[in-house]
Predict the 3D structure of the following.
Amino acid sequence: MTNALLRVSGLKTVFATRNGPLRAVDNVSLEVERGEILGLVGESGSGKSVTGFSILGLIEEPGRIEAGSILFDGQELAGAPAQVLRRIRGHRIAMIFQDPMMTLNPVLTIRAQMKLAFDAHEGGAKDDFTTRAIEVLTKVGIPDAAHRLDAYPHQFSGGMRQRVAIAIALLHRPDLIIADEPTTALDVSIQAQILTEVRALARETGTALIWISHDLATIAALANRIAVMYAGKIVEQGTTREILRMPRHPYTQGLLNSRPDRFPAKAKLPQIRGSMPSLSNLPRGCAFASRCDRATDLCAMQSPAWQGDTQQGVRCFHPLEPNP
Amino acid sequence: MAQEQLRRFWQEFSENKIAVVALFVVLALVFLAIAAPFITPQNPYDLSSLVLSDSRRPPGFVGSKGFTHWLGTDAQGRDLFSAILYGLKISLEIGLSAGAIAFCLGATLGAGSAFLGGRTEAIAMRIVDLQLSFPAILLALVLSAVMGQGKVQLIIALAAAQYAYFARTAHGAAIAERSKEYVEAARSTPLSSWRVLFRHILPNCLPPLIVVATVQVANAIALEATLSFLGLGLPPTEPSLGALIANGFQYMLSGRYWISIFPGIALIVLIIAVNIVGDQIRDQLNPGLRR
Amino acid sequence: MMDDAASRDFVSLEHVSRRFSTGTPWTDRLLTRFGRTPPPRTVYAVSDVSLTIKRGEALGLVGESGCGKSTLGRILCGILPPSEGQATIAGEPVVVDGHKVSRRVQMVFQNPFASLNPRLTIGDAIAEGPLAHGLVTPAQARDYVQGWIERVGLPADVVQRYPHQFSGGQRQRVAIARALAMQPDVLVCDEPVASLDVSIQAQILNLFLQLREELNLTVLFISHDLGVVRHICDRVAVMYLGRIVEEADTAAIYNAPAHPYTRALLDSIPRLEPDGSEAQFKAIAGELPSPLRPPPGCAFHERCPLAFDICNTQVPELTVIDPSHDRRVACHALRDK
């Protein structure tokens, strides 16, 4: 497994708050290979976005990376100087946010912003800017890209803006794109278009993706592998097929069963009781224990260790047995 | 919740040491003003207790009544320390009452017009805008000149000059609140309009209004001092801080600085302290500045 | 008991439209003076919608953002007066002279963080409406509120607490209790689970199903989540740009969608296959048109695979095409077939 593009191990990101340290990301290890799409699923407050920000070195005061290593193509990013991170960010690792206006400047034309992004890294200078810009805009499904280049962000619809944001991310042919809930704010028909484009892109260009979302269904449509996060920890990881067909962590199973699609209409859904504990006030044992039907005294006493490798595994004392 | 919230508010407040000192100064001044009749050696409003031969004496002079005038005496032989405390009391009374009246009037007008919308809102807010385009001092000057001297007249003049600031703020806050879902929920119950306004919209407009209130109380005190300085405020028999400053003004160049300077220092300390406290409250209530 | 006809039209929206206007006429006149066309100022959020809901039925209203589904829900609930047409419940109008007069319809909102007044305790928020309408006396209020709190599955000691002390799911339970404490016949739910975490959604959906049955509620359930609507509703209406394009029994809509938009919408959602195979979906071509400049004719014709000449000019009417499933469709291509 030396060909992993990104290898995160033992990542801990902590935010200092008035009520003591808040462990947003606690001992997260994951791997992404070239051309692979990893789906990172979790509810709000599970630490999935902070994991993405940590990899990009975008954690700001009062947060900091406390421990762990982020090995990107053989280079250590955790604790790397800001200018090294800046060179990698946007060039070799790009980010797409939920709100495209976090990337787009409302008072600049698309051409101006793409030019800024293009010139920020010398690596792109080999290409002719306009050709490359039109190429990526066309690739993400913007019709008549040569003309739309001189439009302002407000002249685009929400879905088109997100495409432009993706196009900017693609400018430098990054090795890895981290996408944080990129389709959550969009309508289903637009979401489907973007998912289709992204899936095709990943296949064509061989760009690796970390796709962060709360929606298992969109991730299932896209990802090769899925990592499920709960209260700052990865609780289960595996190939999409494995996770969907035979989830081993009770939380993963609960998530899958919470969707009404799998049950007859008006039937009572098998709900997960209670809600996720606050990150600043985590229990001593497994954070899911109080909501789990399989929990025993052991789960309340002690936090379960990771069973498995960097590709797949589960963090549970009593995982569901794969049915034969 | 109220208690818990107050505790957290105080915890955050106490992290700013300057604000704590300012709050202490404000409270101390308020206490001194209330306790004035009991701690001052002289009642400066009691003309019979004034000794003309003791007038214009420098600080530290031992007067004919046998006590020391630590801050000196003014042209009428008043003990300045006593006069300042009594003046402080009047200034605070007027500032607080004018602020409170302007608050109630302005908040109701602003939030009410935002809630009603349409033509009512347009007319009410244009009047407020028109008034805001004048300096408040001008309006207060005209009103107190027309109504004459006296505490009540002064309070009315100051409230009339200042309600517009509250109305603007309340209007802005209420516009943001009125489109929120909890207001829609109250309307869909349905609840009567006044109930939606006074129980749902107005209480949620309070944070910015409290901030404006602290600033405006300081402004009212300053305005009152200005009017009194110009001779339009209170009669000279009941001098406020502004009148005291005015009284001593003519002696400034003859070296009897204390008659103006000490009331002036008291006024400045009061206004600055109120403003610092107000700024801290604003910072704490403004969610945009938080975290 | 009511007779069949009355029960069928228990909730009725008759030719309801809602316009929103911006800008002022004189700036428009000025622009015209200088030879410019003024930008469109009037948006039809809802145009000419007629809809009925049977007593005890749950109707799902689905569509993408800007299609007017939330506006329609607010019209039924009396929060927004319609520009034309009217909403009635059992024959009585909801709104008279721009003021809501009926308490028979209540609403549950999307965002439980915004729909509760932060300065009222949970108990006060629930008790306020019933007290104002004389449904309970102040002496009974305490027990009444307690009853509803237990019914929505909250612990009894929440009465004295404030909304900020609760999670999103718990707040939504409070919002449901507040609406139901008014003893409504009709409940309008505007995306009630959209802002909740997945694991909490199931809890609230279960609560809905249970309460609906216990109280025989008539429900208008607004959602963009087709899976949720399928689970909750008896009948589904699909909206596109202010109009209803298809309406039928839930099973008929999901198993055999007729309108090309309904079909495309259903195809565009990635669905989790239980066997773990890759979720399949198909994107709809084109973009949602702006409601400010709706396309002439059928609003969907630019994206529609079935469109032909008449679709560009004439707005199709909603007509019954499949009486057995109570199906109404607004599509030229389907009617002429």
Notes: The two ends of chain B are 21 Å apart (CA to CA). Chains B and A do not touch (no CB pair under 8 Å). Residues 22-30+73-286 of chain B form a domain with the MetI-like fold fold (CATH 1.10.3720.10).
